[in-house]
Specification:
Chain B: Keywords: 2Fe-2S, Disulfide bond, Electron transport, Iron, Iron-sulfur, Membrane, Metal-binding, Oxidoreductase, Transmembrane, Transmembrane helix, Transport. Chain B: Component of the menaquinol:cytochrome c reductase complex. The Rieske protein is a high potential 2Fe-2S protein. Chain B: This is Menaquinol:cytochrome c reductase iron-sulfur subunit. Chain B: The chain crosses the membrane at residues 12-34. The complex is a heterodimer of chains A (152) and B (169). With 152 residues, chain A is α/β, with parallel strands linked by helices. Helices cover 49% and strands 17% of the residues of chain A. Chain A has one domain: 3-Layer(aba) Sandwich (Rossmann fold), CATH 3.40.50. Chain A contains 5 helices and 5 strands. In chain A, strands 1, 2, 3, 4 and 5 form a 5-stranded parallel β-sheet that branches. Chain A starts with a helix and ends with a helix. Chain B is of the alpha+beta class and 169 residues long. Chain B has 2 domains: 1-43; 51-168, Rieske Iron-sulfur Protein (3-layer Sandwich). Helix content of chain B is 20%, strand content 32%. In chain B, the strands form 3 sheets. In chain B, strands 1-9-8 form a 3-stranded antiparallel β-sheet, with no helix packed on it. In chain B, strands 2-3-4 form a 3-stranded antiparallel β-sheet, with no helix packed on it. In chain B, strands 5-6-7 form a 3-stranded antiparallel β-sheet, with no helix packed on it. In chain B, a hairpin with a 2-residue loop joins strand 8 and strand 9 (157-164). The chains are: A alpha/beta (152), B alpha+beta (169). Chain A binds chain B through residues 10, 14, 17-18, 55-60, 145, 149, and chain B through 102, 104-108, 123-126, 141.
Chain lengths: 152, 169
């Protein structure tokens, strides 16, 4: 399911089945061209990843719009904000909350997050449409969905 | 009266000219209207398109996943969408092409996706199952069987088109 009206209509007919929330965490920076391009590329591939995951598990995963934040080495403040999100989601109730990110700074905060962090190193690619990139992404998405299944 | 000098009178000449010019103007106005009116009929419908996906001789009795791409146009943007089908030959040698979209809540099912049911389609979300024919296994969540793809065979190549729910197939 995605955050749009049509999917929400379906969500409310089958609420008890859709128990997993997926939140993409996307950093944004204004420092210099190189960093900004990197961050933009990460958000492009990141969104491809989460959309593919949602496509496989449409009937169980609810994909939220991306959570954007200012890139920083210290994400403590963001962690407490995300935990509020997770707490609200648990009231819905969503039983499982997954955060997806390419940003390695989350790895340090992982144990403070009330949810499961799916972190992976970013794929550096010029062209997300190329056949090689597509098959790499497909394979990684399969591994991620396999991982999510083990939490259910 | 001798020979008429003027075979076309001034009045006639003006009538002809005005009719001619008026006719052109009317045609100029009507042509686009007619074109707009029949335009939807002239548009190639992208929904009913068939795409060549695989050589028929490569298809076995074991359901195999086939991916292909179509261009999808909606109101706001055009995008390339990957479509997936599970394709096999039944005991009569006829092609069966099933949609992978679970009829419960829309997850992707896989053939033999669960080791306990090696000859069924399995939905990982809520353990929905389907027999090889695509019929849903009773007492699992899906309310009906998997959709079929419409298909055509041309020169030994399988072409897949839109999906059709079971009721209409």
């Amino acid at each position: 399911m995605q955050w749009n009206k049509q999917d929400l209509d379906q969500y409310f007919t089958a609420e008890e089945y859709i128990d997993t929330l997926l939140i993409p965490l996307i950093p944004i920076t204004f420092t210099n061209q190189k960093e900004m391009e990197k961050s933009a590329a990460q958000q492009e591939t990141g969104m491809i990843f989460v959309r593919e995951m949602e496509k496989h598990f449409k009937g169980r995963i609810f994909l939220l719009p991306a959570y954007h934040y200012l890139a920083s080495g210290d994400l403590g403040a963001e962690v407490s904000r995300l935990n509020e999100w997770a707490a609200k989601a648990n009231e819905r109730p969503f039983k499982h909350v997954f955060f997806f990110s390419f940003d390695p700074h989350w790895k340090k905060q992982e144990r403070n997050l009330n949810g499961t962090l799916l972190w992976m190193p970013a794929i550096q690619t010029e062209d997300t449409q190329s056949k090689e990139t597509q098959s790499i992404i497909k394979d990684q998405v399969n591994q991620l969905t396999g991982l999510i299944k083990t939490y259910w | 009266m001798s020979e008429k000098r003027q075979q076309v009178s001034r009045r006639q000449f003006l009538n002809y000219t005005l009719t001619g010019v008026g006719g052109f103007m009317a045609a100029g106005m009507l042509a686009p209207m007619v074109r707009f009116a029949i335009d939807p009929a002239l548009q190639a419908s992208s929904k009913g398109d068939f795409k060549a996906v695989e050589d028929v001789e490569n298809i076995t009795e074991e359901p195999t996943r086939i991916d292909w791409e179509i261009d999808q146009v909606d109101a706001w943007y055009e995008s390339t969408v990957t479509k997936t089908a599970w394709v096999y030959k039944d005991e009569n040698g006829d092609i069966v092409a099933l949609s992978p979209i679970c009829k419960h809540l829309g997850c992707m099912v896989t053939w033999a996706g669960n080791d306990d049911y090696p000859d069924q389609f399995y939905c990982p979300c809520h353990d929905g199952r389907y027999y090889k024919s695509g019929e849903n296994v009773p007492n699992t969540p899906p309310p009906e069987g998997l959709d079929f793809y419409e298909y055509k065979i041309e020169d030994g190549t399988l072409l897949l088109g839109p999906t059709k729910p079971r009721g209409e197939a």
